[in-house]
Write a structure and sequence with these properties.
373 residues, mainly alpha, 16 helices, globular, transmembrane helix, DUF418 domain-containing protein, transmembrane
Length: 373
Amino acid sequence: MAKNAPIAGASDGSAVDRLVAIDLARGLAVFGMYAAHVGPNPLEGGLVGNLMELTHGRSSALFTVLAGFSILLITGRKAPKSGVAGRQAIARVAIRALVLLALGPILTYLDTPVQVILAYYGICFLLVLPLYRLSAQQLGLLAAATALVLPQVRSHLVFGSESSYFDPVIKLMVSGDHPAITWVPFVIAGMAIARLDLSTQAMHWRLGLAGVALAVLGHGGSLLALRLLPGVPAALQESAWWSDVGYLPWSPWIAAPHSKTTFSILGSTGCAMIVLAACWLAMDALPHLRKLVWPIITVGSMPLTAYVLHIVGIAYLLHIVGIDLFGGGSRLSMLFGFIVVVSTFAVLWLRVFQRGPMEALMGRIADLARHIP
């Protein structure tokens, strides 16, 4: 089994052991998206409902932060690549972005209730690519600035513009389910994290504590604003500071996932940093834990394959088998089924091959960049 399969050819000398934590976090993000898409409805309440609610929006935010990390794995994490290597690295990221832009509509055509995020990722990749030479501090400041400013720009464009929301470019940039204008901060944050010296436990603790601070600022700030500011609708005061269950009227003060507000971006980025730091600390402190969570790590090493498989699986069960995945009742068995099947596939596949099937295909296409002089 190839330990460095997920980043084969992309590492710039970083220790493979350190990057296993990235695959673990990515695997958790994949399973979180499974929970959000086929797991029990959070409206059921109770412990299971609340756990499911934690995955809504935050899993895709974690995935997006890790996507930013991966961009610097390709373009040079410790030091930006330059010359021919730099131009080829830029082209590799751009090609990946174009593939995602094409793959997104294909998966959407399968007509599942899942809001496919891949095309939005593609746009974000293209938008942040010019930033790959910036330092960790510069990227961190830019992530904070875009989190503060871009949600306000989006709300002005959405609520104060006559532009058609159905225009493909406007939808991807502004009015869609995961508009690039408010998801770019997650990608930039991931790039900033990748630029840090992550070789010490002290840095892992700092990353985790910074994540706690951001989560408190985002969700705690939203809670205070909703409770203390005048004129806030009663419907928002109970749970809109952390949950998007049920219908919520839009407000710039809510931090519910998918609300596309500054508070939401800060809170979800903080949660992503906490998970990432926890994965690093766990891999450092408990080396034997790696064997127990290896199925999660293998899924995290082929995230695109895992994502595509679950969309195809949902489409098959809905349209071919005729199973109502989103009807009443608990869907824990369905969620566990998806997790077990995809984990088993990932483990068996990596016993034979170095990368997942979609990752290998993406790599072959992106390898066209080697022809750039």
